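Exercise 7b. Backbone tokens:
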């Protein structure tokens, strides 16, 4: 396994192979599902505010179209590369199948650190990238959404760009839009809400009262901060939080509401400079190894590896991020009896409510927030129950159980449709 070298695509393929072996998948369908169906790389110019022109590189990868149009976010990050986008696209296929929404998986990314762009540069970059990948996009083809460092405003620019090309408004080409142009109530909080529900359900199965749980969250972006807030409201004690500026620890429990307010008033929504009585500054590495009950990685891939897995003290890990745990770490933690709610289940709340947004847009009929939250809960808790049952019956880790269910659904759809021509 050392050869995986933390290449997210090799890791994704390794996870798929484990499930394919257990399912005894025929080699032909295995070969189809092991690789992305379509990949588009684009190099495109953007006019910068100082009059210069800079060329950026971006990707859109569609992993599998067997179960419907493809779905998945677009991220802006300096470390984006094709193997990361391939892995994220493959994980979207399994995620959509696991929660049984009618999509295949896709992902996009641009190599850029948006912190160094002005708002108008960000808009021009977004509109040009949307134009470059527009050959792939459409409500019936490929529907992007927010991911790391992209938000509702970026989605609005993409919707507007595609709509300008077509000459009419196409709300269902994208999800995670602002509510005033067809976004869904509850979408911004959906991924964090799903994470909270997965902590609640896992705690219930493990007979742990919620008010006894000490929680640590890595990442204070949309997913981490919403999950921390909702778990705090549920009566759990959030003792550690980190973001790109480092970690913040308070054994009595952090004031999540104050930290959320702080980030809205500071640059790039970061916690730099946050201070309160009893709060200790720690490093991001120390944060992951804090004494706690639940660890929620809600940042980048490859955060829990063979290098720190033995020092992780949490009894439960709920993966808000995509791919935060390497297979080596997975094995070490599983042997130590740590319960891991895998990414394709734990963070599926976002794409579930994206599906609701797409349906609402196509029907031009919009739902109340309580309806959105109730339906989200029914779907994600239903998927959790199915995964838990398979894991118990077959004595498997939750990740393997989730993959069995998801990969089998995708394989079945592709086999039923057959090979064209
Ligand atoms: N980017 C999110 C994810 O990784 C949401 C994708 C979507 O809503 O399409 O699941």
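Sequence design result:
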């Amino acid at each position: 396994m050392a050869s995986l070298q933390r290449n997210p695509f090799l890791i994704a393929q390794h996870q798929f192979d484990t499930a394919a072996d257990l399912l005894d998948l025929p080699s032909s369908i295995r070969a189809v599902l092991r690789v992305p169906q379509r990949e588009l790389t684009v190099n495109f110019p953007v006019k910068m505010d100082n009059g210069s022109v800079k060329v950026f590189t971006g990707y859109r990868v569609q992993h599998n179209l067997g179960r419907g149009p493809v779905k998945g976010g677009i991220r802006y990050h300096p470390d984006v590369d094709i193997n990361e986008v391939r892995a994220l696209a493959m994980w979207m296929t399994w995620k959509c199948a696991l929660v049984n929404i009618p999509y295949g998986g896709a992902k996009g990314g641009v190599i850029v650190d948006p912190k160094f762009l002005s708002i108008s540069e960000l808009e021009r970059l977004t509109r040009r990238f949307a134009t470059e990948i527009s050959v792939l996009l459409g409500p019936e083809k490929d529907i992007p959404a927010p991911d790391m460092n992209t938000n509702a405003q970026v989605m609005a620019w993409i919707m507007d760009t595609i709509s300008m090309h077509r000459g009419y408004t196409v709300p269902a080409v994208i999800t995670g839009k602002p509510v005033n142009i067809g976004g869904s109530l509850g979408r911004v909080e959906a991924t964090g809400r799903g994470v909270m529900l997965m902590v609640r359900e896992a705690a219930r199965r493990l007979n742990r009262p919620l008010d006894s749980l000490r929680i640590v969250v890595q990442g204070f972006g949309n997913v981490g901060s919403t999950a921390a807030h909702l778990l705090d409201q549920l009566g759990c004690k959030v003792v550690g939080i980190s973001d790109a500026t480092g970690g913040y620890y308070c054994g009595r429990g952090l004031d999540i509401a104050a930290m959320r307010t702080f980030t809205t008033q500071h640059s790039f929504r970061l916690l730099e400079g946050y201070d309160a009585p009893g709060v200790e500054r720690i490093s991001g590495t120390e944060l992951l190894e804090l004494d706690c009950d639940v660890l929620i990685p809600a940042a980048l891939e490859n955060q829990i590896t063979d290098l720190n897995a033995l020092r992780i003290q949490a009894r439960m890990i709920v993966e808000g991020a995509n791919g935060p745990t390497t297979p080596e770490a997975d094995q070490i933690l599983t042997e130590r009896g740590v319960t891991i709610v895998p990414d394709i289940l734990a963070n599926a709340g976002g794409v579930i409510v994206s599906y609701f947004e797409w349906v609402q847009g196509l029907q031009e009929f919009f739902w109340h927030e309580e309806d959105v939250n109730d339906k989200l809960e029914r779907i994600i808790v239903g998927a959790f129950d199915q995964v838990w049952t398979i894991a118990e019956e077959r004595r498997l880790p939750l990740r393997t159980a989730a993959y069995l269910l998801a990969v089998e659904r995708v394989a079945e759809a592709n086999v039923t449709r057959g090979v064209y021509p």
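Instructor comment: The pocket of glutamic acid is lined by residues 71-73, 145, 147, 175, 322, 347, 350-351, 354 (CB under 6 Å). The first strand starts at residue 38 and ends at 47.
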